Amino acid sequence: MNPLSLLRQFIKGLTTETEPPQIAAGVAFGFLIGLLPKATLTVQLLLVLVMALRVNFPIALLAIAATVLVNPLLDKLTDPLGYALLSAPSLAPLWTSLYNMPVLPWTGFNNTVLLGGLLFGLLMFAPIYFAARRGARVYNERYKEKVMNSKLVKGLKGSFLFDWYFKAGA
Questions:
Q1: In a domain, 147, yes or no
Q2: Is residue 48 part of a domain?
């Protein structure tokens, strides 16, 4: 698969599954995944979940990228949160039993940033979902037609390269 077909699929994904709940779920999952260290089984499982659900995947990727940019600032919140959970004496038997299970150490739950980010992301999932759903609804009602009828979009759609690539490659 060449990079241009990936770009075509990405743009096609932005124009499909554009209902506000699908966009909002993409933003919320993207925020959650963006908070976590990427080289863990937890992130891989969350990505599989996003692909399995009817979520706008390109929006989720954009939300991941946006969250990764502000993540160093959020680490100052998530790291102490994860440390507090992992160092709580009452939870020590739970962490020990989870660590001794066959696959669970690969999830990275013993990483303070991952555990704090997972907890913070899950706590913020609903508020982000509802805010993004409202934003998507406002965009669809007020701005979608204006954007689709803008000179830039019409120019791109009218160009022979757009017709050649997006219609021939579909």
A1: no
A2: yes
Nearest to 61 by CA among 78, 82, 40, 47: 47
Residue 66: inside a domain, yes or no? yes
Instruction: Kindly state the tokens that stand for 153.
Output: 């979009």
Q: Is residue 90 part of a domain?
A: yes
Give yes or no for a contact between 81 and 119, defined as CB atoms under 8 angstroms apart: yes
Residues 6+ apart with CB under 8 A from 20: 133, 134, 136, 137, 140
Mean pLDDT of 33-57: 92
What is the CB neighbour count within 10 angstroms for residue 155? 10
Distance CA 34, CA 23 (A): 16
**Residues in CB range of 98: below 8 A, 6 or more apart:** 104, 109
Single pTM value for the model: 0.82
Q: pLDDT digits over 107-145, tens only?
A: 988 899 999 999 999 999 999 999 999 998 988 888 777
